[in-house]
């Protein structure tokens, strides 16, 4: 089995940079299977293009563009690249006590994508983690079961911009109490929370589909293209079209 040192990957390392004690590498991989290996550091790997299988123990998981994978340093695995070319961004971090492997499927991946954009544009990472950071939702008590229902609505109905009043009517809670309790439990206003969901969904569409900017804007409930582009640029400091070109190039 191979143990890869800091900054080493079984592929072509096209570029490496250190930002805020994180080591970022852009790698390219060709069709085929790697040897069994592990890495010296824990790291996240973001798949930009192509597809591959993550094989470990008796499991085999297909990784698709836009997926973010976490691997602990003692995670022994091999990869089978099932498309002609595969491109990844890898972010190495210090050792943690998390699981050996997980596919980072949380709705909000904005912090990672902003890190990637700044890396590819040769900028120092300047994103506000206060906007992008995930805040786990506490288990609600019996008086807050409406909160799970409300969050489900926001995730399922991305084509609508919901207001506290419209949501309050559906979960039978006073709008003022709803807005206050939501902020206390999630750390975000309803508006900010659903904007994160919409922008993350837009990122997945930009990476995984040929849909136009107008189609993506409409499907995520923005009033017009200008509103979508303005919101996206405020979060990522780059337009949706530039984002797609940058991560696909």
Automatic annotation (TrEMBL):
SUPFAM superfamilies the UniProt entry points to: Homeodomain-like, RmlC-like cupins
Domain of life, source organism: Bacteria
Keyword Acyltransferase found: no
Keywords for this protein: DNA-binding, Transcription, Transcription regulation
InterPro entries on file: Homeodomain-like_sf, HTH_AraC, RmlC-like_jellyroll, RmlC_Cupin_sf
Start and end residues of each HTH araC/xylS-type domain: 166-246
Signal peptide feature range: none
GO MF terms, alphabetically ordered: DNA-binding transcription factor activity; sequence-specific DNA binding
Keyword Transcription regulation among record annotations: yes
The name this protein goes by in its record: AraC family transcriptional regulator
Native species: Chitinophaga sancti
């Amino acid at each position: 089995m191979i143990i890869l040192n800091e900054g080493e990957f079984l592929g072509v390392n096209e570029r490496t940079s250190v930002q805020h004690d994180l080591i970022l590498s852009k790698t390219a991989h060709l069709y085929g299977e790697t040897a069994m290996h592990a890495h010296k550091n824990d790291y996240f790997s973001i798949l930009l293009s192509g597809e591959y299988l993550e094989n470990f123990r008796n499991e085999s998981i297909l990784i698709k563009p836009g997926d973010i994978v976490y691997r602990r340093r003692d995670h022994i695995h091999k990869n089978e690249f099932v498309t002609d070319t595969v491109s990844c961004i890898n972010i190495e971090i210090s050792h943690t006590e998390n699981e050996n492997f997980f596919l980072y499927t949380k709705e909000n991946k904005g912090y990672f994508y902003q890190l990637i954009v700044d890396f590819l544009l040769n900028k120092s990472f300047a994103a506000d983690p206060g906007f992008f950071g995930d805040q786990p939702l506490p288990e609600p008590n019996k008086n807050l079961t409406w909160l799970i229902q409300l969050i489900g609505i926001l995730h399922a109905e991305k084509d609508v911009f919901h207001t506290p009043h419209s949501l309050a009517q559906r979960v039978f809670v006073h709008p003022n109490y709803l807005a206050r309790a939501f902020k206390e439990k999630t750390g975000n206003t309803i508006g900010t929370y659903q904007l994160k969901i919409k922008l993350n969904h837009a990122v997945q569409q930009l990476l995984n589909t040929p849909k136009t900017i107008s189609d993506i804007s409409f499907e995520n409930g923005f009033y017009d293209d200008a509103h979508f582009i303005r919101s996206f640029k405020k979060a990522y400091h780059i337009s949706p079209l530039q984002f797609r070109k940058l991560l696909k190039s």
